[in-house]
Specification:
The complex is a heterodimer of chains A (about 110) and B (about 230).
Chain A (H helix, E strand, L loop, with lengths): L2 H23 L5 H19 L1 H10 L5 H41 L8
Helix pairs in contact in A: 1-2
Chain B lengths: L2 E7 L6 H11 L4 E7 L5 H8 L3 E4 L5 H14 L4 E4 L9 H10 L5 E5 L10 H17 L11 E4 H9 L7 H9 L4 E5 L14 H17 L7
Helix pairs in contact in B: 3-6, 5-7, 5-8, 7-8
Classes of the chains: A mainly alpha (about 110), B alpha/beta (about 230).
Chain lengths: ~110, ~230
Amino acid sequence: MNQGLLIALIIGCILTIVFVLVKIKNSQFKIGDTLYWLFFCLFLLAMAIFHKPFFLVSKFFGFESPSNFVFVIIIFLLLIKIFLLDVRIAKAEEKMTRLAQKYAIDNETKEINE
Amino acid sequence: MKVLLIIPAYNEQDNIERVIATLKRDCPQYDYLIINDGSSDKTEYICKTKGFHFVSHPINLGLAAAIQTGMFYAYKNGYDAAIQFDGDGQHDPDYISKMASEMEKGYNIVIGSRFVNQKKPMSLRMLGSNLIQMAIKLTTGKTLKDPTSGMRMFDKKMIKKLAFAADLGPEPDTVALLVRTGATFSEIQVEMHERTAGESYLNFGGSVNYMARMFVSILILQWFRKG
């Protein structure tokens, strides 16, 4: 992996961690949700700092370049995140629908025959 | 038999009054419930001033949720049967009593079908209908002659399922799933009117999307769902 990508990874990680911490400070994030991003950043940081053993693993799997391995891992982690978000949206929509339906039925307007 | 007519209405200010008037004239013996699905026009105002029986979703939830609200109401109030009756004037109330007496023979689902003893016309829409019919035949072994008909009457058992299950919308894949999991159905011949006002929600892109959804749902996803 070239030096440029290493430095970019490290800077990117630090910025993301700072961003997450600021969001927590402003209470715009649930603590549980920040865990994913913090671990994600720490993992990337670890890959950047301890790249020697990481290169070996990459070679073992037959990647032409360690940077490809980095990309594969990141894409995989993001896919998992998207999947989890999808599940969460579906659940939130279902709850919203139930709420609105309950509200509608509780506020039923009976027929008036003149 | 206590039957509830579920009338979903989303921006139907031009239709709703006429639909209810026809209903009251042709089959006053049945209860109806309008589900105003967060309309942005005067639908709710008309319902209120005319003294109609209705509930209003505070936000627009879509047709499937509107029908489900009706099913939930039917379940809560102990109705024996519930039928979706479109608020745009496509369905003819004359057939409801025929469908109800068919249901009394013990069917779980009675479908008002355009093609029991009439041939399907040749059109792109009917090609879609035929494809869905084939998919249902493949998975359930039963022939449903008009799978896309929106005129479906459900009995008590089905009402309960539809009221509580997530994702059992008023679509052919729901009928396929119910039939595969043991529901019995019958089709009776009906006529349907063209829409007199408002526009259909299916355009070309929507139709392709609809077909794709039905196929994947009926042929593949159905095996992973519980009925």
